[in-house]
Amino acid sequence: STSVNSSAVDLFRSASSRASSKELERIDSLFYSYANPSSGLIDPEGIENLCSDIEVDHTDVRILMLAWKMKSEKQGYFNLDEWRTGLKSLRADTVSKLKKALPDLEKEVRRPSNFVDFYSYAFRYCLTEEKQKSIDIESICELLDLVLGSQFHSQVNAFVDYLKIQTDYKVINMDQWMGFFRFCNEISYPDLINYDSELAWPLILDNFVEWLQAKQN
Amino acid sequence: MQKGITKLKNILEGLPEPQFSSEDYMMLYTTIYNMCTQRFPNDYSHQLYDKYRESFEEYIISSVLPSLRDKHDEFLLRELVERWANHKVMVRWLSRFFYYLDRYFIARRSLPSLHTVGLTCFRDLVYRELNAKVRDAVISLIDKEREGEQIDRALLKNALDIFVEIGMGEMDCYENDFEVAMLKDTAAYYSRKASNWILEDSCPDYMLKAEDCLRREKDRVSHYLHSSSESKLLEKAQHELLSAYCTQLLEKEHSGCHALLRDDKVDDLSRMFRLFSKIPRGLEPVSNTFKQHVTAQGTALVKQAEDAASNKKVFIRKVMVLHDKYMAYVDNCFQNHTLFHKALKEAFEVFCNKSVAGSSSAELLSTFCDNILKKGGSEKLSDEAIEETLEKVVKLLAYISDKDLFAEFYRKKLARRLLFDKSANDDHERSILTKLKQQCGGQFTSKMEGMVKDLAMARENQSNFEEYLCNNPQAHPGIDLTVTVLTTGYWPSYKSFDLNLPAEMVNCVESFKGFYHIKENHKKLTWIYSLGTCNINGKFESKTIELIVTTYQASVLLLFNIFEQLCYSEIKTQLNLGDEDIVRLLHSLSCAKYKILNKEPNTKTISPTDHFTFNLKFTDKMRRIKIPLPPVDDKKKVIKDVDKDRRYAIDASIVRIMKSRKVLSHQQLVLECVEQLSRMFKPDFKIIKKRIEDLIARDYLERDTDNPTLFRYLA
User: Fold this and answer.
1) Where is the Cullin family profile domain (chain B) (predicted)?
2) Does residue B61 sit in the same domain as residue B141?
3) In this complex, how many residue pairs, one in chain A and one in chain B, have their CB atoms less than 8 Å apart?
């Protein structure tokens, strides 16, 4: 009876593996429908086509979320492995399924435990050059608005204003980027009552707070 | 036996009775001995022991108490003192008569001794009844004495001895029955007095009275109170006289601590210290006021220096005078107390770290040193006075947090003194370096010492060069040349431009290189023409004049050996110098006191369109003139250099700390860093933060992912 049972399990297994290999095939063929045949990658043009098929603007935060889900390493490009990783876990093997998966993806990203990871991923995703460690102010302002703008509207607006008028910094590094996220989560705004510049905040935030306070007075 | 006892009583009462003879005594002792040594039931020991006590009781009730009860005040004290003295005589005699009891009966039964029984009788019957009355009488006499009346101190002493003796080795009778009330009365007395004085008297008068009162109370203890009362009594009096009115007294508007400091009332201040050092935390307000006063005085000097440039020149001297004055206060008035040393230090730190009319104290102090140490400086002092002043410089430096800035300015000025032979005295130069080394450590002075050493080496080098030229006449450039070879690291950094040197001078340089590379072929020579001096002959129409000029100026002038006329841009191209230098040079030669060059147009400033010719008509009554070239104000460069050095110092300190601690919180790291660097300067918190961030970016440190206030060292 054991052997019967085990063969039943095997049957089930092979059925499900057949189903999943079917799914994989569909995922792969979807990939090739967007990929550039010469490079074998979905390039910016391919991404733009994908965006128009799922009816999302290519600058929409959900595209960044999709990249996060795929663990995509190079800005503007998806390779086959990344595509498989992302679409498999979204259980999407067609354009319509992918489109339907987006609201759930957004919920997943917004979960606090994932959001920190997504936030730091967003920074890393924008590092396009070898050994690049920081991002220019202009791009940072756009990125902040994209990833934090809906959640911390006033903080992001104020910080973006500050970044644009200050002259001490031309670029922002990861430490400062993460520091601002911590600031949004921990500091009472706009009274800033619990901000203490003696603590380990990055200097740029000390300066930002000084600027805000000068403005408030 | 009864006869004997009665006789004793009569003697004590002063009735006519012959003295006890030795036969009387022998007889009484023998009687009692016999009564105790019979066999039971004829042993009367116990009865005799009772009889002994009863004799006292009977005498006290019949004679002593009646004579005391109708007496009061001083009379009561006199009677009691006498009665107590008699009682002690009676105890002595009776206990001798009954001595045999002490030896056997009492010892065997562990009963109170005859002496104790005798004293206890007095305590229970007399002392218990009268001690309160006696206490009040004593206290009222003390108060009379406080008011200036003469009292019988011996009587008080004797009366108070009763309180002590009646305790039979314990102090509780004295303490509970007398001292507590006496202290309470003392407090009330001085509370009353102080509440009047504080309103009527000035602070110095009040302090005089208070000091006098305390002296008298101490005197009182030595004359008739028990010595154990001294600290308690003084504590009470000090509390009422000083603690209770501390603030009111010290802050009296026209005579309080501020006014005394303002008016230099050293005697009153000394008294204030003596008085307030006795009460708990009493000196804190005094030292705080002292600190405020000194800070205000110093800040006023800063203000004066802001108001007039002449005051700025004497600022450091005035600060020294201020320091001498108040250091003497600390030493004398305030008996060298640490609290006042601290107050003085903190006060000086306040105004010694303020900017003084656009300069830092560090810069002013280094300029002050330069004036003392250079030839023809504005301070004309004897050797001893110079030594003393240098000592004070080092003392003041201790209050300045930017010690590195002082060092940099000092080095810049020391370089000028050494290179242009302006130092007045080598001994003083070395002496201040020794003092600075003691105060700030070897690292602080190592470069300066290197500079002084370099110069001695350079002199030796020069004589070797001259010898070399003698032996190799073909290498002689035809011009007398002196070269000062220095070690780059010791000296301030100088701009070295690629000045196009005149051909004559190029020969000189080549000649020296030829000499130098024979012995030091692995060392690289960098020529700093901006520090050079040339003596050249100007052949003017009327006479030849020796011109003492800088190498730069000489390079301009030598161009006119070749060219009749040159325009600004031609000179600039020929020399290969920047506009700033060219303007400065041409100004010194054509617009200043000595117009060696004619400028077209003839205006007071240099413009790029100007033309220049050699002024053949120039003359001067001297045969030799020095044409000054105003030095570039390099203050900004010094400050910039110091800031750069600080960044390195902070980086090094952070890395050192993190290397040993591995993981550290932000605050702890900042704290340790400030601590490490405080000997040289006080790092700005923002700069430390910036350096930490820079080290994170350079992968020396990382921020802990879970706790963003922690840093980790990345080895």
Assistant:
1) 360-590
2) yes
3) 36
